[in-house]
């Protein structure tokens, strides 16, 4: 009669050990979750760095676009410049 509770205790201990092993070392276990969290943090930092880089590049592009339009507009109005193939008509008042 005493052997049955001992066998049950051993079986439960083995089951508990198996569950604990999976929890700590198995697929989806704590070690993997911690590794994935660290990987996510690294990726988020990289994304922020790239986002800031994209903002800087976008600002440079906008500045260049607006800058060239401004330069061209001034050259046309103040200096009377035209593009190749265009004809300039000056009206005298």
TrEMBL record:
This is Cell division protein FtsB. It holds the Pfam family DivIC. Keywords: Cell cycle, Cell division, Cell inner membrane, Cell membrane, Coiled coil, Membrane, Transmembrane, Transmembrane helix. Transmembrane segments: none annotated. It comes from Thiopseudomonas denitrificans. It comes from the Bacteria. Belongs to the FtsB family. NCBIfam families: PRK00888.1. Residues 26-93 are periplasmic. Residues 33-74 form a coiled coil. It is found in: Cell inner membrane. Essential cell division protein. May link together the upstream cell division proteins, which are predominantly cytoplasmic, with the downstream cell division proteins, which are predominantly periplasmic. GO terms for cellular component: cell division site; cell septum; plasma membrane. One of its GO terms (biological process) is FtsZ-dependent cytokinesis. It is a single-pass type II membrane protein.
């Amino acid at each position: 009669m005493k052997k049955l509770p001992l066998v049950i205790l051993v079986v439960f201990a083995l089951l508990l050990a198996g569950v604990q092993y999976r929890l700590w070392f198995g697929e989806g276990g704590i070690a993997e979750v911690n590794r994935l969290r660290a990987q996510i943090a690294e990726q988020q930092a990289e994304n922020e760095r790239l986002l800031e880089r994209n903002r800087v590049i976008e600002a440079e592009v906008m500045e260049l676009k607006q800058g060239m339009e401004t330069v061209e507009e001034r050259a046309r109005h103040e200096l009377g410049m035209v593009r190749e193939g265009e004809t300039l008509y000056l009206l005298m008042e």
